[in-house]
Structure formats: C-alpha cells, structure tokens
Amino acid sequence: MDPQLSPHVADSVATVVIRHPAKRNAMTAAMWRALPPLLDTLAADPDVRALVLTGEGGTFCAGADISTLQGSPEEAQHLAVAAEEALAAFPKPTVAAVRGHCVGGGTQLAAACDLRLAEEGALFGVTPARLGIVYPASSTRRLVSLVGPATAKYLLFTAELIDAGRALRTGLVDEVLPEGELDKRTAELTRVLVSRSQLTQAAAKEFAAGRTDRDAHWAARARGSGDTAEGVAAFLERRQPRFTWTTSGSG
After folding, report:
1. 181 backbone dihedrals φ, ψ, rounded to 5°
2. From the CB of residue 173, how many other CB atoms can be counted at a distance below 10 Å?
3. Among residues 173, 7, 156, which one has the least CA distance to residue 98?
4. Are 82 and 104 in contact (CB under 8 A)?
5. Of 64, 135, 139, 214, which residue is least crowded by CB atoms under 10 Å?
6. In this predicted model, what pLDDT tens digit does every residue of 90-148 receive, in sequence order?
7. What is the pTM assigned to this prediction?
8. Which PANTHER family match (predicted)?
C-alpha cells in the first residue's frame, strides 16, 4: 500500500487514518502536503462535526519519514509545521486516538489536536535532538502549553520516550484506556462532541488558543445563532437539544 491519509465520514465524525505500515506510519512529504487541503475539505463539510486522527494498526505515527530529510530538512520541517497548523486551526473538535508509537512528527500532530486519548502501551517522544534539528518555535510553544516548560525541556533535550502513564500525568494526553478499549472510548467521546453546540466549541477553541480580538464577533454569532434559545428550551423540556449553528460557511 502506498503511504496515504485515508479519510471517511460516519455519524458526523470524520476519521483520518495515517497509513504507511512499512515505516510505522511515518509521514512522507506527500502526506504532509496532503493534510491541509484534506482538512479544508472536511471543515467545509456540514455533515462533519468532529474529527479523529489515528494511525493504521498498532502505531499512531513514528514521525517524519527520515528519507524525506535527506534533500532539504528545512523544506520537510516547513511541510510538517504547515500540516500541524492546519490541524490546530480546524474549526471543529479534533481528537487524536493513539496506539503504539507517537514520536516526532506524530507527537507534533497529536499535540495539534484538541484532545488526546491513548491506549496503554503507547509511547510518546519529541526527537529532533537525535538528528540535530531545531524544533520549530510554534511547535515548541504548543508543547509547552500542554505539558509545561519542565516536561517540554525534558522531552526536547533528551529525545527519550515516555509511556502513556507519564504522558497522562504531564497533560500530554487526556485519558489512557486499557488495551482494546480505545476505539470504544473514542466513539463515546465523539458522540458527546457532535451532540454539543458547535458555536460554543468554535468560540472556546479560539479563546483557548489565545485570541483576544473576537469577543464581539462571537457575541454577535451567539445572538443570531438560535443555539442559546434551543439549549435553554431543551433543558426546560427535559430533551436533547438540536443545535443548528455550524462553522461551515460562517466567519
């Protein structure tokens, strides 16, 4: 099988599978390039309310395909950062479902997701120090925001792998699941996500990312969305709300 990103949509959830089994799902240059336009397509799809990123088989992603670094390391890093930023900017909730190795570019992608679930036995690492590469400033800041400066320095300075338990304690992942339970829990979580207000989620995502210039924008969206009225009515009527505001086509 050629290395590829395989998307499919079911029950309002887009799942993107990283497939490169010959190299433990390492990302090739073509795969890095393919991710931003794929995300644009999924973001514009009104049937998509959440996204899951995962790897084929027992590995999430072993990083960048090292053979792609032989020509132009700078270009390879640029492609990885562009893909990471596109994933971080995806306007709907994103979940990384991690099995096995999540290393280098794999951790870069997982960190760009909003939430991270890991199966017991997963291993995480940020490994540019093994190759003499300067980790991108934006990626470093994102890592620090997740795990704090001390753990970020440990990961970057040592390039050592940490297990899922330590990843949970440091904030790199949100939940650790027993073997065989990751898919079930991912499905449960995404069912919750797609049932909630996209308006609330989209605004919270921007605010959590540090935007300070969009208060009036989101207040206006809230006034015109109908989601608040529906949420209050559903609560009083003891029923599930039917939120209708979507990020697709909104500013």
Report:
1. -105, -5
2. 25
3. 173
4. no
5. 214
6. 999 999 999 999 999 999 999 999 999 999 999 999 999 998 999 999 999 999 999 99
7. 0.94
8. ENOYL-COA HYDRATASE (PTHR42964), POLYKETIDE BIOSYNTHESIS ENOYL-COA HYDRATASE PKSH-RELATED (PTHR42964:SF1)
